[in-house]
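Changelog-linked ticket: zinc ion example.
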Amino acid sequence: MGEGAGANTGVLLMGHRDTVYPRGEAACRPFRVVDGRAYGPGCCDMKAGLVINAFVLAAFKQLGAPRRVTALFTADEEIGSLSSRALIEAEAKQARAVFNAEPGRPNGGIVTGRKGGVFMKLAVTGKAAHAGNNLADGISAIEEVARKIIALHALTDLERGISCNVGVVGGGQTVNTVAPSANAGLDLRFVRVEDRATAMAAIERIVAQQHVRGATAKLEITGEFKPLVASADSKHLFEHYAACACDLGLAVTGEFAGGCADSGFAASVGAATICGVGPIGGRAHSPDEYLDVASIVPRAQTLALAIMRLN
Ligand SMILES: [Zn+2]
């Protein structure tokens, strides 16, 4: 919307509509406000961010936009943005500035850096056999996956910002059978772009190394986020945003977050990007998720002012 055209002059506002909760959660835990805090699935991550994006768009539509403003409300951030990633990257490439309205930090800070993440599924195949009569004929996929998990967890190096965590395991058939199959869900996080390749090579070595004779393993990437790495342009954008907040009487700090978000895709194509500019809340992805209702208007005002003053 608005006037103004040409590459890299417009502003991109981003937000995701999906939440992490199972179907029916909203009926069990409907939206409510108690003592200035709103509750309900996705109230801060990130329905409130979509609300401020919509209000900023409505205000510019009514009063005239200072530049082209595009908003993307996508549907699959929580599972790795499989369908929206290409669209985010294409729009971000054209943008002078990208604001992602993920929730603001409980202290009012926004997010200037995020880890990257790769989500993977490891499937191990063995061979079933009776655990009492002919154990030696079997190939235990569970033993194979267990040994791999120990090696995978050893890749964690928190000082470098690298973590490798198996969050889900499954496998086996019955208690008295050598397990013919097993699987593990693996989450790799990293801060530096270059650490992805090193860590993935180490993971692939572990997957290839056979501990139980005859067991085979296959690794599949099921989702991925790029890290949000602060560039000179994104640092300027943060300073600009913080100055606008300051003029509205708000103190805003820039923080690093371990969680991944679509802002990483925008930053990875070179767009000046800041994240966490949504209203303030906490305990996302839990039944205690809350939104500070009083933060909605000031965050919308700060976003609008930051767009208006952008040069
Ligand atoms: Zn989110």
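Closing comment: Example verified and attached. The CA atoms of residues 4 and 35 lie 43 Å apart. The first strand starts at residue 10 and ends at 16.
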